[in-house]
């Protein structure tokens, strides 16, 4: 069982999956340019970062097969494992001491002295921490809220933090009205299961996401108490920043390259004051290239679990779902069903749009179409879809602020495409097959 990124990197090193980058790399643009070549799908270990003595791991969670492997399961079991983990989380185990506190730096003076803070895209307004997993106590004072939040380095021991979650915004607002800071911890260097669990919807499931992460790997994660704030963090994280989001303190943030591949806007954001840094001996730093598959895949996987559960309520014969990476991990969905009635495809579309406001385009296909192959999906649209009969458009609906065309009007049009063939027409739509095709090994025929 893999419980920390050191074990994971060693496992991939032994399998010759991990790519080592031994050339010195600049954290200003160069690191991002190298990662971009791999789209965040390949595990990379940058061994020499200019100005720093720590290695940097990237690309740990950008490929379905690798994410599944890190949890000890097959790729096609990810969604069922995630749904079960949400329903049956495994509580964390608090221990007195953990590797993440082998080194403790109280009242750090310069956050960027030991750990790289990168600038990724040309017009980014500054250097950012983008892979830190935020930990905050819920308003009940018991449950933990975890999510990935970008933090712009402001100098010294201060950063911005972008808080977009409505629940977290409301919690911060209430504290701010009382003149109180919000205590936070930010974990760096965690396994893919922890990142995946952090993307589970809080308002839908109201669960402690660190407990969900434990269920994903089949064992409760070990946590330790922070040194300067009243929070628990993963004992096997590589680095933790402890701090407080200050009340009534804001500073300019943005422009920054967002999830959809465009630059986002500018606004004043809350300020974080870091009160302590703890880390393992010989720590491994971790980052994520914004807008890469490593950023999009965890979002897509959790949305697939929600999409499957939502559609299944109205179309019980749903077989599989896929949120695509080119659709920014949230805008495009493909739904595979075993159609029983002519209205099933449209019911699936309606349920999908109702269950996820960010979904913009949905294609519904039959069971014989491989939804993981874009060519198969396009073939189904080309041969089974008629626009005057199978197209559904819902104008003026809510969408995602991360999608620029939505921001032009503040609403989005939803489009559903029924690429299933009509019931009773199986003979016309039977696919051409060659007997024995699946057993052909080309290595036996060509050199």
UniProtKB/TrEMBL annotation:
Highest taxon, organism lineage: Bacteria
InterPro entries: UbiD, UbiD-like_C, UbiD-like_N, UbiD_Rift_dom
Similarity section: Belongs to the UbiD family.
SUPFAM superfamilies: FMN-binding split barrel, UbiD C-terminal domain-like
Positions of the 3-octaprenyl-4-hydroxybenzoate carboxy-lyase-like C-terminal domain: 299-419
PANTHER family named among the record's database cross-references: 3-OCTAPRENYL-4-HYDROXYBENZOATE CARBOXY-LYASE-RELATED (PTHR30108), 4-HYDROXYBENZOATE DECARBOXYLASE (PTHR30108:SF21)
Gene Ontology CC terms, in alphabetical order: cytoplasm
Domain annotation 3-octaprenyl-4-hydroxybenzoate carboxy-lyase-like Rift-related: ranges: 96-291
Lineage: Bacteria, Bacillati, Bacillota, Bacilli, Bacillales
GO MF annotations, alphabetized: carboxy-lyase activity
All residue ranges annotated as the 3-octaprenyl-4-hydroxybenzoate carboxy-lyase-like N-terminal domain in the record: 13-86
Organism field: Marininema halotolerans
Protein name per Swiss-Prot or TrEMBL: UbiD family decarboxylase
């Amino acid at each position: 069982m893999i419980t920390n990124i050191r074990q994971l990197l060693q496992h991939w090193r032994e399998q010759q999956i991990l790519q080592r980058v031994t050339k010195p790399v600049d954290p200003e643009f160069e690191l991002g340019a190298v990662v971009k070549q791999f789209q965040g799908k390949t595990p990379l270990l940058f061994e020499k970062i200019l100005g720093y003595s720590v290695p940097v791991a990237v690309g740990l969670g950008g490929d379905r097969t690798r994410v599944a492997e890190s949890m000890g399961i097959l790729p096609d079991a990810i969604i069922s494992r995630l749904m079960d983990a949400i329903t049956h989380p495994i509580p964390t185990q608090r221990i007195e001491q953990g590797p993440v506190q082998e080194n403790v730096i109280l009242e750090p003076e310069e956050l960027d002295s030991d750990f790289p803070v990168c600038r990724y895209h040309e017009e980014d307004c500054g250097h950012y921490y983008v892979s830190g997993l935020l930990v905050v106590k819920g308003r009940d004072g018991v449950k933990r809220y975890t999510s990935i939040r970008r933090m712009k380095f402001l100098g010294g021991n201060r950063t911005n933090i972008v808080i977009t979650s409505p629940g977290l915004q409301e919690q911060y607002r209430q504290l701010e009205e009382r003149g109180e800071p919000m205590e936070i911890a930010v974990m760096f260097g965690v396994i893919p299961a922890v990142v995946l669990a952090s993307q589970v919807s809080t308002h839908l499931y109201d669960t402690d996401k660190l407990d969900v992460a434990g269920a994903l790997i089949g064992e409760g994660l070990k946590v330790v108490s922070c040194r300067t704030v009243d929070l628990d963090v993963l004992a096997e994280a590589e680095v933790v920043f402890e701090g407080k989001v200050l009340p009534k303190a804001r500073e300019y943030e943005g422009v920054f390259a967002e999830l959809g591949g465009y630059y986002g806007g500018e606004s004043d954001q809350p300020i974080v004051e870091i009160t302590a840094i703890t880390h393992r001996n010989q720590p491994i730093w971790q980052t994520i290239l914004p807008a890469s598959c490593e950023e999009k895949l965890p979002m897509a996987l959790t949305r697939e679990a929600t999409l499957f559960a939502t559609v299944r309520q109205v179309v019980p014969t749903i077989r599989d779902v896929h949120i695509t990476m080119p659709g920014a991990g949230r805008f495009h969905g493909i739904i595979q069903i075993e159609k029983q009635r002519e209205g099933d495809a449209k019911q699936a579309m309606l349920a999908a749009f109702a269950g996820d406001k960010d979904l913009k385009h949905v294609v519904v296909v039959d069971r014989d179409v491989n939804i993981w192959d874009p060519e198969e999906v396009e073939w189904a649209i080309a041969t089974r879809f008629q626009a005057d009969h199978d197209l559904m458009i819902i104008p003026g609906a809510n969408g995602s602020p991360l999608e620029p065309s939505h921001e032009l009007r503040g609403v989005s049009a939803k489009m559903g495409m029924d690429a299933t063939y009509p019931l009773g027409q199986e003979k016309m739509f039977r696919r051409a097959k060659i007997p024995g095709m699946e057993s052909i090994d080309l290595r036996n025929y060509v050199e």
